[in-house]
Amino acid sequence: MEIEITPGCRYFPEFLNKTSQRLLLDHLKKALHEAPLFYPTMPGTGKVFSVRMSNMGEIGWVSDKEDGYRYQDTHPKTKKSWPQMPDLLHELWQELTGFTPQPEACLINYYNASARMGLHQDADERHLQAPIMSISLGDKARFRLGGLKRQDPTRTLILSSGDILILEPPLRMAYHGIDRIVPGSSRLLNEGGRFNLTMRRITPGP
Ligand code: MD3
Ligand code: FE
User: Fold this and answer.
1) Ranges of residues in the chain whose predicted pLDDT is under 70
2) What confidence score (pLDDT) does residue 25 get?
3) Is the distance from CB of 35 to CB of 75 less than 8 angstroms?
4) How many beta carbons lie within 10 A of that of residue 86, not counting itself?
């Protein structure tokens, strides 16, 4: 089922069945073994994010006190290249977005019961026509979607394990955030919590 929440936001509830979710989780666990979750810090203040992160793909999103938000081709702690994005993710991108060029980055966010992501815009990508594809795994989350201005009204969507969201123009620069997860609402992860994967094209590309 495909639902247009509003132009620029397409929602595919439980697009991935349990088997596909487990398969994707297996890929994810292998990637996190190579590229462990880290706590990004805010530019300037050095305040620590409550969401832990890592990446797959050619480049990955990182942030720290000194150099701020950016994409780079190595893990900030191990200094190694990011693990490859599994074929499954490229196939899903092709199936649901049909967009060329292919995504270069897959940001992995991990939320425990006290993690939050405040209202923000995603503005660190150079390719602003490319869609962003988001996949949720594990506990449900209260996702807040606003408009192009911070003051615009927001709506809340509950994102569940296996749900996919596609964000594209005219909503590509909309404000959005995660208020909190709903602990214990999924049995997919033994340790509980929620993973969100966001696939992105960063550079204009061929
Ligand atoms: C709406 N992640 O990593 S994914 C992020 O669930 C981020 O972890 C959230 O916001 C999460 O930057 C939300 C859904 C999403 C992603 C990108 C968007 C919604 C968006 C870009 C524009 C508008
Ligand atoms: Fe975001």
Assistant:
1) none
2) 98
3) yes
4) 18
Does ligand 1 come within 6 angstroms of the Cβ of 106?
A: no
Tokens at 75, concatenated: 């893990």
Ligand 1: nearest atom to the Cα of 109? 8
Half-sphere exposure of 141 (CA within 13 A, CB side): 33
Q: Maximum CA pair distance of the chain? A: 44
User: For domain 3-200, which CATH number applies: 3.40.50.300, 1.20.120.450, 2.60.120.590, 3.60.150.10?
Assistant: 2.60.120.590
pTM (whole model) above 0.85? yes
Cα of 3 from ligand 2 centre, angstroms: 20
- For the residues of 115-154, what is the DSSP string, one character each? --EEEE-----S--SS-EEEEEEESEEEEEE--SSTTS--
CB of 109 closer than 6 angstroms to any ligand 1 atom: yes
List the domain boundaries for the chain: 3-200
| Residue 206 confidence (pLDDT) | 72
